[in-house]
Amino acid sequence: MKLYLEVLRPAAVAAKPARLGSKRLGGRSLHALIIVAALVFAPPGCSLGADEEAPPAAGAPAGIAAVVDQLERATAARDFATVCDELLTAAARERSGGGDCARLLRSAAEGVRRPSIEIRGIKLEGRRAEVEVRTRAEGQQTVSDVLELRREAGDWRVEALAR
Fold first, then answer.
1. Rounded Cα distance, 31 and 22, in Å
2. d(C-alpha 41, C-alpha 69), whole Å
3. CA dihedral 137, 29, 68, 37 (to 10 degrees)
4. Average pLDDT, stretch 13-23?
5. Sheet containing 116-125: which strands, arranged edge to edge?
6. pLDDT of the residue at 39
7. 3-161: what fold?
């Protein structure tokens, strides 16, 4: 995943998607998980543009973007075992059904087709991060949300849907 990074203030970084042409990144995405997360945690594209390549993200923003990318790919592939076991924090996994997490997420995402995600910004606060995302799925409106990520056992993991 390529990102343009813009320093907003100390310890805050805004990520903008690289402009890669008229085709989106493989048509895969996270919208299904955002929808699922809204159901479980709470009681999206590229355009034509610049000819220059964005410098690759480094450090924490790169790690956070990688987790969102993994989440996107796993959701598009309907691999909810990977989502539950590798991408959610322990607390998020428990809130999502514990041992039944993958089955419940799969059921909640039933009927969601061609999900896509766009990272709009990343805000770092120590061991926590807020990732502003815009998600889409076939036949559904674009949704803007914030994912909360937390460092757990040295890795960035999804904690919650903030909005």
1. 20
2. 20
3. 40
4. 42
5. 3-9, 12-17, 116-125, 128-136, 143-152, 155-161
6. 43
7. Nuclear Transport Factor 2; Chain: A, (3.10.450)
Q: How far is residue 100's CA from residue 82's CA, in Å, rounded to a whole number?
A: 13
pTM of the model: 0.66
The residues, ordered by sequence, that sit 6+ positions from 122 with a Cβ below 8 Å of its Cβ are 13, 14, 15, 61, 64, 65, 129, 130, 131, 132
Find where tokens 């159901």 sit.
Answer: 39
Distance between CA atoms of residues 9 and 46, nearest Å = 26
Would you call 113 helix, strand, or coil by DSSP?
coil
Angle at 113 between CA 16 and CA 44, to 5 degrees: 10
**pLDDT (tens digit, 9 = 90+) per residue, 104-137?**
999 988 888 888 788 999 999 999 999 999 988 8
Instruction: For the chain, give every domain's residue range.
Output: 3-161
Segment 21-65, tens digit of pLDDT: 333 333 444 554 565 554 445 433 333 344 455 555 668 899 999
pLDDT of 81: 95
Other residues' Cβ atoms within 10 Å of the Cβ of residue 12: 14
